[in-house]
Design brief:
Layout lengths: L2 E7 L5 E5 L9 E9 L14 E5 L3 E6 L3 H4 L8
Antiparallel strand pairs: 1-2, 1-5, 2-3, 3-4
Length: 80
């Protein structure tokens, strides 16, 4: 199941994408599919038909992992 992430690239606007799995500490590259801006529009510096992008970790400031649908349905402690 793909993991939705927000990627913060150095000197660029944050973008949304999907990862096959959370990257390991030993990975040197980040392979992202279905890349788009946070508002859903195309990323201007990518060709229209690009489906997968590979970035080196040296270009990435940090990655936010968005909760999955399964995690959204978990009901935690509720105080009445």
């Amino acid at each position: 199941m793909p993991v939705t992430v927000i990627i913060h690239i150095a000197n660029e606007e944050p973008i949304l994408g999907e990862l096959e799995e959370v990257p390991a500490i030993t990975d040197n590259l980040l392979v992202v599919q279905n890349v788009r801006r946070k508002d859903g529009k195309d990323v201007s510096y990518l060709a229209d038909d690009v489906t997968t992008v590979i970035w080196p970790w040296s270009r990435i400031n940090f990655v936010e992992i968005m909760p999955s649908e399964e995690e959204d349905q978990i009901i935690g402690f509720v105080r009445e």
